[in-house]
Amino acid sequence: MTIQMLSAFLLAFLFVTAFGKSYIPWLEKEKARQQIKENGPAWHAAKNGTPTMGGVMFILAEILVCLTVGFPGMLQGHFEHIFALLFSLVFGAIGLLDDWKKIKRMQNTGLSTRAKFLLQLAAALLFIFTMKQLGFLHNHLYLPWSGKVIPVPAWLFDIFAVFVTVGTVNAVNISDGVDGLAAGTSIPTFLFFVLITFAWGREYLQLGIFASGMVGGLMGFLVYNFNPAKVFMGDTGSLFLGGAIAAMAFAYDMPLILILLCVMFIIETLSDIIQVSYFKLSHGKRVFRMAPFHHHLEMGGWTGRKWKEKELFILFTGISLLCMVLSFLVVFDRF
After folding, report:
1. Does the pTM of the predicted model rise above 0.85?
2. DSSP H/E element including 172
3. Which end of the chain has fewer CB atoms within 10 angstroms, the N or the C?
């Protein structure tokens, strides 16, 4: 099992680092460039024109890993990693469409908020329905903090699953606003599933291969995405990541672990919701200097100290690593 997991990591890492050397120049040639929001931090203007849609790099790496390292398991009838991949790809495709529209219009707005939400909602419903039909999802919830499994009415479980899926996808998307931040925050999340695979055994090997491939692919991507970024993942990459995290949480039958495992993504999302809600209720007042939370820290937060992008990367990744350890300690002895 160790060999397969290590192979998935190395294959994804080496593929992304090698592919990026030709893919990024191709993006520049095709003028697939990011348009920076005008209402963002002023110093982000220097990033305008940076190639985007870099998420394709680790998406292709994950496809390669699933079809090669995961192939022996497929011959034995194990396709869990393929279902996780397909689900992630659906969200990645939504992100790709959004990025394509942005590039075509040469501005930072692609799909409308309504269109993006409806597409994500449809994808989540399709995933839940399909997984239930195939017997991969059941109407119960595992409570990590108590070790208990409680039955849930089918209609309530479906609503919960849709909420978690769409919420996770958008949380990762919101966090992709600083060089390396979304990738760095996601790596501990997928590393958690790698560790759980070792703890729970070969029954979860196919999913472990998927998770290990994501860790390798994202680390390879950081070679190009770490500050100063040579390429951005775009919505193509961030929506794929969100879909992959949600898919893995349900595949391991513990979606509630995301409350602890994805603390930084949750903080980012809540800061955005709080900012918008308070702005409307107070007729123009703000809780944060700018939302989401990483921009608040960039602009001085409540203390006046402006965090640099590399410092934000260390902060978010470090807290995510701590949450990964705590999450592992909570659930490692489930089976």
Report:
1. yes
2. helix 154-175
3. C
Q: Output DSSP code: residue 193.
A: H
287 CB-contact burial (10 Å; exposed 0-12 / middle 13-18 / buried 19+): middle
Tokens of 221: 């991507």
- Could you give the C-alpha distances from 72 to 6, 76, 112, 134, in angstroms and in order? 15, 7, 42, 21
Instruction: Transcribe 80-100 into DSSP letters.
Output: HHHHHHHHHHHHHHHHHHHHH
For residue 143, what are the β-bridge partners? 148
Report the alpha-carbon distance of residue 303 to residue 108 in Å, rounded: 30
**CA gap 300, 306 in Å, rounded:** 4
* DSSP letters for 195-230: HHHHHH-GGGHHHHHHHHHHHHHHHHHHHHHSSSPS
Tokens at residue 213, please? 């491939």
Q: DSSP of 111-130, one letter per residue?
A: S-HHHHHHHHHHHHHHHHHH
How far is Cα 250 from Cα 335, in angstroms, rounded to an integer? 16
Q: Measuring CA to CA, which residue among 116, 111, 88 is closest to residue 99?
A: 111
Type of residue found at 165 = T
User: pLDDT tens, position by position, for the chain (335 residues)?
Assistant: 889 999 999 999 999 999 999 999 999 998 887 766 655 666 566 677 799 999 999 999 999 999 999 999 999 999 999 999 999 999 999 999 999 888 887 766 778 889 999 999 999 998 898 888 888 888 999 999 888 899 999 999 999 999 999 999 999 999 998 999 999 999 999 999 999 999 999 999 999 999 999 999 999 999 999 999 999 999 999 999 999 999 999 999 999 999 999 999 999 999 999 999 998 989 888 999 998 999 999 999 888 899 999 999 999 999 999 999 999 999 998 87
Other beta carbons within 10 Å of 66: 23
Residue by residue, DSSP assigns 49-68 as T-B--THHHHHHHHHHHHHH
Element (H, E) at 150: strand 148-151
Total Cβ atoms within 10 A of residue 169: 27
